[in-house]
Amino acid sequence: MDSSGSHSYTYSVGSNPVSYDSQTLHVLFAGESQTLPLHQAGPKIYDYYLLHFIESGSGSFHTEQHKYELGEGDCFLIHPAQLVSYISDPNQPWRYRWAAFTGAEADRLVQQAGFSPDTPVLAAAEGRVIPDALAGMMGAFNANRESAHLTSLGYLYLIIGEAAERLSTHSRLPGTGSQVQRTVKQMIHYMSSQYAHPVSIEQMCDSLGYNRAYLSRVFKQETGLSPVTYLLKLRIDKSRQLLRERPELSVEQVASSVGLTDALYFSRQFKRFCGQSPTAYRIATARRGDNSSR
């Protein structure tokens, strides 16, 4: 920023070449500006979300409930139907980037990030994820290709992901009940999405950032099963579905499809959980289906 107090006003914006037509999520435009001292917008109401990232300078952001003094690295999100205003500092006016977005999914996405009318500010965002994503949106729109619509959504999700990481109210330290339940849900989701691959419990623990002993303990407290047993039961349950619905698949192919490449091990574990071999289970379910159709 020019320390002499002389600032040249700049303003540039790129609009989405794909017009908004009730899409579930849509970035309307993205821009950047070096504001003049005491540059003010509002008080006014917007009918879309408008996110600003402050690259340099300072100023104040006013909502219906609060006033925020903001500077370099801060973000503020204007919510639809909220009366707001914002004004640049008289000596070090803001230089910022922004993007506007809307759509049926926008509310849910904003809530997932941790923003609300009472929490509209992300303080001192680290790194370059958000400003680079905003710049990427603007560049994509200025290229005036229809693919820019999809590109802008990718950048928006990057921004939301970064905000969620920073605004999350959940501590990364284990201990609280809500955190334990959240961690167990993450483990269940991980296994439910990865069961068909040769995933290990160690890999899952590494991806979640906890040691295996801790995760095994809290998982069993919440579910009554160890992670190893839960994953195996999940695979057996999926294999039962395949045995019933895909008669053209061999037992070996079913085993491989649920992440168990050793067919003999699969058959032993299937009998352990179901009381009969995979082949006997398939024959019995097929016979019951034939009898019910008569």
Automatic annotation (TrEMBL):
GO MF term set: DNA-binding transcription factor activity; sequence-specific DNA binding
SMART domains (alphabetical): HTH_ARAC
UniProt keyword terms in alphabetical order: DNA-binding, Transcription, Transcription regulation
Domain HTH araC/xylS-type residues, every copy: 185-284
One Pfam family, short name: AraC_binding
InterPro entries: AraC-bd, Homeodomain-like_sf, HTH-like, HTH_AraC, HTH_AraC-typ_CS
PROSITE patterns documented for this protein: HTH_ARAC_FAMILY_1, HTH_ARAC_FAMILY_2
Protein name per the record: AraC family transcriptional regulator
Organism listed in the record: Paenibacillus agri
Organism taxonomic ancestry: Bacteria, Bacillati, Bacillota, Bacilli, Bacillales
